[in-house]
């Protein structure tokens, strides 16, 4: 019995490690998240973050080089239909869909969500909100122009500067990375806390934003905002409990363990499943060891 248990543990651990290493080393161009949404691979590498001199606001300076490891990001903004599915999920009976505008459809980006609600959604599916650097790299898609499509943005490229509301996700062409609606449509929450002067002290590799601060970063502009607000480098921030009909979100893969400690048990059902499984295996192993000691003593 004990040998079989050890064999099972070895196979289990080796299998998990192999899958993790393989996925990190040989990421496919796309993959599907646990929420069923397609994600696009953003390659590792360096890019210039922020705006050049003479362009943008003070908070977008200084422009600086940032290196990011490769990562996946949602191809589309999270939709109303997807958020409804989240609200109906097991153990989330108290979750309700925030009031949506009258123009909203099942395939519209879910809006009127706070940072905390967006983070809870991401955490439930083993994801997190993108860092500000991840968001900008995914938006720029290798460009250094104001927008992923050049220095001008028009109505054929994105939903902006209109009173008619957001468009269904994917209504406009994607950028060179294959990511949709990074300009306009809905502002998108980022993981980072806001630091207006953070760019001057930001680490070059995989910056995570300030450790403390009352506000969170928003990116991308929205359907009612002018083109200037939709620039790749533009930054906005708001309290993490604030909400309005201009704000939505998308996700990147997250650390299950990190999410567990940040958001607690009730918001981490998938994490708990893994925790219980591993704890169960550990308990069985301990009992097997105790029985083995008892047998030795009897002999």
Counted beta strands: 11
Q: What's the CATH architecture?
A: Alpha-Beta Complex
Largest sheet: 4 strands, mixed
Q: Please indicate the percent range of residues in DSSP E strands (runs of 2 or more).
A: 5-15%
In CATH, the topology is named: paralog of FGE (formylglycine-generating enzyme)
Q: What is the H/E string? A: HEEEEEHHEHEEEEEHH
CATH class: Alpha Beta
CATH H-level homologous superfamily name: paralog of FGE (formylglycine-generating enzyme)
Number of helices: 6
Helix content: 25-40%
Question: Which helices and strands appear, and what pairs or packs with what?
Answer:
Blueprint: H1 2-25, E1 30-32, E2 38-42, E3 45-49, E4 64-68, E5 71-74, H2 80-87, H3 115-124, E6 127-128, H4 132-140, E7 187-193, E8 215-219, E9 236-239, E10 247-248, E11 252-253, H5 256-263, H6 269-298
Parallel strand pairs: 7-10
Antiparallel strand pairs: 1-2, 2-5, 3-4, 6-11, 7-8, 8-9
Helix pairs in contact: 1-6
If you had to describe this structure to a student in words, what would you say it looks like?
The chain is α+β, with helices and mostly antiparallel strands and 299 residues long. It has a single domain, classed as paralog of FGE (formylglycine-generating enzyme), CATH 3.90.1580.10. Helices cover 30% and strands 15% of the residues. It contains 6 helices and 11 strands. The strands form 4 sheets. It has a 4-stranded mixed beta sheet. Strands 1-2-5 form a 3-stranded antiparallel beta sheet. A hairpin with a 5-residue loop joins strand 1 and strand 2. It is globular. The two termini are 19 Å apart. 37% of the residues are buried.
